[in-house]
Design brief:
By secondary structure, the protein is α+β, with helices and mostly antiparallel strands. The protein is built from four helices and eleven strands.
Amino acid sequence: MTQEREQVQVTELVTPYQAEALANLIDTDVPTQTLPPLWHWVYLLERRPHRDLGPDGHPTSGIPTPPGPGRRRMFAGGRVTTFGELRLGEEATRTTRVVESREKQGSAGPLTFVTVRHEIAQGGEILIEDDNDIVYRAAGAGSLPATSAPVGVPEREARLDLVVDEALLFRFSALTYNAHRIHYDHNWVQQEGYDGLVVHGPLQALMMGELQRRAGSGLVGKTYAYRLVAPMVGPQTFGVLAGENGLAAGAEVRDARGVVTAVSTLVRPEPWPAMW
């Protein structure tokens, strides 16, 4: 890992081991030549020393740097443009930097919105542009809004279910090197205003992409935008469905009570200068 001013670079070999671990976690075939879109989320991770972590399990410095002590970090969504799939057995490089940061005053205190961009290259060619939207809210801002009442689940053209329990949440945290305590610490989640362990936003986003891939539409040559709209809390079986306008346009995640917790859309990206 190298760090120059306001960007961080990580270079590593794209081995088959993380791909096998993720495939076994979400119950699908193990890839043998290239990584399916979004699977880069278990590669090229910044593995910070344990002493750098704050009480919530997130690093207290780096990219992005928290705007102040005690601010609670929430992952809000992002956009991934896939120009090509990463090849197994070859080195890849991820370059990370902050591309936008803005302040806003919310009803419960200050909010900081940060967009972090990851560009992933292999063989001198940028194959993936990955933007993460992160929100920091004030410490002591109070509990999150109560979850909605159970609703009916509509019939859609495609569906994919995933059983999530404490063990799966733990394994996904380990695979993505995510120490945020809302995913494994029953006492900590109460401090952040949740009723139970929180199901990872990236896991929900990954499964929406998996529905696209397994249905044959795929994400290569497209920009995949996703947004987390409500917390998913506690062990359960959640469903991934085609969106209201059909799977070609996007997908959505519904928790065990039928409440929509994440949505995604697909668009064609602008042309990208592929070579460095």
